[in-house]
Amino acid sequence: MNKRSTYQPPYTITAAIVNLVAEISEAVGRLTVLSDQARALRLRRINRIRTIHGSLAIEGNTLSESQITAIMEGKRVVAPPREVQEVKNALAVYDRFDTWVPEAEKDLLEAHRLLMAGLIDEAGMYRSGGVGVMAGRQVIHLAPPADRIPHLMADLFAWLAATDAHPLIASSVFHYEFEFIHPFADGNGRIGRLWQSLILASWNPLFADIPVESLIFEYQAEYYQALKESTDQADSAFFIAFMLRMILDTVTASTPEVALEVTPEVRLLSVLAGEMTRQQLKETLGLKDDEHFRKAYLLPALDAGLIEMTIPDKPRSSKQKYRLTDKGRQLVARSVG
What we know:
By secondary structure, the protein is mainly α. It has 2 domains: 13-255, Fic-like fold; 262-336, Winged helix-like DNA-binding domain superfamily/Winged helix DNA-binding domain (Arc Repressor Mutant, subunit A, Orthogonal Bundle), CATH 1.10.10.10. The chain contains 16 helices and 4 strands. The chain has helices at residues 15-32, 35-41, 44-58, 65-72, 81-95, 105-116, 149-162, 167-181, 188-203, 212-218, 220-233, 237-253, 264-271, 278-284, 290-303, 326-336; strands at residues 132-135, 138-142, 307-309, 322-324. A hairpin with a 2-residue loop joins β1 (132-135) and β2 (138-142). The chain is globular and about 65 Å long.
């Protein structure tokens, strides 16, 4: 056996953790029943904005959800350039969310490179100097020396690839250990939370859309306290339990009613009459940016099975039009009702 795979992060499975895993699994099971509809209606775009807003706000970014939405739509936003850059970088990272492999260290480095591009010199590279974990102005943890990071991260990824711990637990352990190591000069919190979501999404794709980040932002003080408590006890059980409570609250809050909010693809359905060309749809929606229309409106509606091409075997045909599917018509009827 590879020596690295014998590494075992220190954590205790408490009764509270077991109960939380069971509750989350039940809640996810109920939500999964709606997953097909959820992918079409459940606000992947809005939830992603909430996720990015929550994660950046924890790090001091002041942009609102509406400003992040405007940046996503290619609109000009009057705000500090660094904060705008942080949002653009986060959007680029989450656009590639489905391509990252949780156990791949190179993917984590690439995600950091995108996330911190133009913000720090060591984007995509482990730090070369010392760093501490801050909660406001208070240092709550002095991270290990820089020369230990490659070995510590290799151990952590080897453990993640080999562990048989439930993904809810494994993702929380990874998150804590990552923050303890604090491998980057900046962006550790954002990457740690991103990677926990990624591990969870590999267990159940619903976690690609559930904005745990926004809830962590609401309980920011408790988040840092959970990190500190686990470090003081040399056992991440406290942090695991905290994260599982955040996940449970977020999953149970993701009710079917949320699915009825107006997403871009639902707006597209509301204007689609009979068979319409791409240009007709874009003009009817009052949109000018072709790429934004394709990514935010057309592709999500196609992927969700709400609309279909009239010439599916020739997707680039100049005569291509789009029409509602049965699923799309049912949604329109329900929305009107």
